[in-house]
Write a structure and sequence with these properties.
Radius of gyration: 19 Å
CATH architecture of the largest domain: 3-Layer(aba) Sandwich
Shape: globular
Number of domains: 2
Largest sheet: 8 strands, mixed
CATH class of the largest domain: Alpha Beta
Number of helices: 9
Length: about 260
């Protein structure tokens, strides 16, 4: 890969997802984080690099060298990392299960403690119908349905919950907002740790070296309609219905 000359060919920043195409024809997506300051003072307005009309054509290396910080840049960086990773993940160097969600690889009959980081509705519904003890770490309690709020734990309470958890399912959004390191530090070595979601499709080596055993990644299979979906307020489940498939990347020592 000629990283020094790799550029951003196209980009969409949607309500829920950010999608990018690089000059080597690779694609990546990530959750969109937005900056919550609608009343921007004139002196704070930014018209520099990586602002509207000045993103396409920029070198990828410049994106990761830029000193300014914003949630939009965090999303852009994560989508770019996922695009760079896509060819490497499909190179045959990793153990991959196609068309598979990480939860389908778990034995939910063992009555364990399971913590879900992020309000994954499908996971909450499936786990809550078992005899496992379920906790949901989430910033916003209202992200859970009324009958699910009994599982709610404030996100900041993760040091109290994670040390005694057998299975931890972490949203890939924690890679975007840089909260994953704190979560992983509180998880015991023996726990089954999964990182999943549209933002988690990065080269897995660093995650595998830090307690993660399964990555639920997103493989774009119809890139020609990806940008339309993202631009029309598409969420992760729209991707999987129209233009992507779920894949699981397994750590080498994991036996399923």
């Amino acid at each position: 890969m000629d990283f020094d000359n790799l550029t951003i060919a196209d980009i969409r920043i949607g309500l829920f997802l950010t999608a990018i195409k690089l000059s080597d024809n690779s694609f990546g997506v990530a959750s969109s984080l937005t900056d919550n300051h609608p009343f921007s003072l004139k002196e704070n307005r930014d018209f520099g690099d990586f602002t509207p009309s000045k993103i396409k054509g920029q070198k990828v290396s410049s994106l990761f060298e830029i000193e300014k910080e914003s949630n939009i840049l965090l999303s852009l960086k994560m989508a770019t990392l996922n695009a760079i990773s896509s060819n490497l993940i499909s190179s045959g160097s990793y153990k991959i299960v196609n068309n598979c969600d990480p939860i389908d690889l778990l034995d939910l009959t063992r009555n364990q403690t399971i913590t879900v980081v992020g309000a994954f509705q499908s996971y909450i519904r499936k786990i809550s119908n078992t005899n496992n003890r379920l906790y949901v770490l989430e910033l916003n309690e209202n992200a859970l349905q009324p009958d699910q709020k009994k599982f709610y734990v404030p996100a900041d309470d993760y040091p109290k919950i994670l040390p005694d958890t057998d299975i931890v399912i972490i949203t890939g959004l924690t890679l975007v907002n840089n909260t994953i390191d704190g979560l992983l530090s509180a998880i015991p070595e023996q726990a089954m740790v999964i990182v999943t979601g549209p933002s988690s499709s990065i080269i897995p080596d660093v995650l595998f070296a830090n307690k993660v055993r399964i990555i639920g990644a997103t493989q774009i299979i119809k890139p020609d309609i990806l940008f339309d979906i993202v631009s029309e307020a598409g969420a992760g489940y729209h991707l999987f219905n129209y233009c992507a498939q779920k894949i699981c990347i397994l750590r080498d020592d994991l036996i399923i």
